Amino acid sequence: MDGGISNPAGTAERLAQMLAALPDLARDALVDPVPPRNLNDWSALPPETPAALFCPRSAEQVAAILAAANAARVPVVPQGGLTGLCGGARPIAGGIALSLEKMTGIEEIDEASATMTVLAGTPLELIQRAAAERGLFFSLDLGARGSCAIGGNAGTNAGGNRVIRYGMMRDLVLGAEVVLPDGTIVNALSKLIKNNTGYDVRQLFIGSEGTLGVITRLVLKLHPAPGCTHAAICGLSDYDKVVDLLRGARRKLGPTLSAFEAMWPDYWEVACAVPGVRDPLEARHAHTVLIEAQGTDEAIDGPRFMAFLEAMFEEGIIEDAAISQSLSDVQAFWGVRDACAEFKTTLGPHHAYDVGLPTGQMDGFARACRAAVAEAVPGGRSVYYGHIGDGNLHLLAWVPGAAPQPGEALDEAVYATVRAFGGSVSAEHGIGTTKKKYLEFSRSPEELDLMRRVKRALDPNGILNPGKVIDA
Predict the structure, then answer these.
(1) Which domains does the chain carry?
(2) Which range is least confidently modeled, 35-39, 71-75, 239-243, 399-403?
(3) Which of 95, 210, 235, 269 could be 320's S-S partner, Cβ–Cβ 3.0 to 4.6 Å?
């Protein structure tokens, strides 16, 4: 691999070489000056100005830009909606930023196949609305739905709120068009669910965070639009009851169970203090759970949901519950769970973590991690919540009043605890640069070596998102 990629000497000359070789096809994609929004993603890292910004409108333009960059050994950082939290879309000095923000649009909705073909820069919320207008449903849902781009969702293998029923992005992408670092356009835009024809090319790029290729189009799997949605906020006396409730929900609600969100009391207290958030329960409980079920027929699924809750009360699993009577109630319940989006205002600066753990170990992890944070940093606090039905726990850690926040000490405390519990340092946010040093906590040496081999095979010159995820 060319060591010049990581060496700032000669970057200006290589950029000039690239621009001189750029075909007319791609010249109008160059944007000057670089807007402030393209200097960073949503990570807490300082902004970085790229040497140039390109905003292509087609896969052919992407291919021409990458081919020229590869020949000149100019680093390229792909960008989508820039809502990532791990620095994966943050530019690097001397490199170019390749933003897909102008590659937006829905090319086809195939109702017979229940698929949608979209350009990679299309915002998630636009895809959700387009599906709903046709009586269909795209199940991925994130708090950043209005800003995040579907290509970035695929590149980071986004999860979101309804993984327990529909799966992660890996389960929602049937086909992809990808441009390799040398400019080769790989068309794998299949609509087939059953396509057992050798290596699954699309999966190579989903979750690769733009280090192996640039996703330019996707074929997405759609589902029928839910006919009804029911939700309840449940108070429970201990974590064992939370696991019992999850087990009961899986058994009695079956495939209608669409979300199971657990909130520890430290999170609940902070969330209910956010302006505009209403506590739907009369008393505080050791654990609080939001359950959502999406059905097809109100006459059948409504009574089923109520029968499930009644059974959980009778078995002594639920202490108290608020049950939705309308979609506005469902949205209000989600408002408590999603209040974390406002914590920067109420808590001030803090660090957000998303980790993967076996569901049965989450409470033990929360207790151990809370103690580790408090021990590592005087005054350190942490709160816990997450989509525990799919093994994903979120936590926020901070030191009240500290400026700047002791990020590295907090990271060490959290990820060392994750490692001790045999968990994953990233359940759905990716690795980028902020978690790169901790990747070995969750992957074996053999897995890391295989990742490096794949990176070298597809990007031998190391131009694509260098320094992110793993070094080849």
Answers:
(1) 3-102+453-458 (3.30.43.10), 106-224 (3.30.465.10), 228-340 (3.30.70.2190), 347-432 (3.30.70.2740)
(2) 399-403
(3) 235
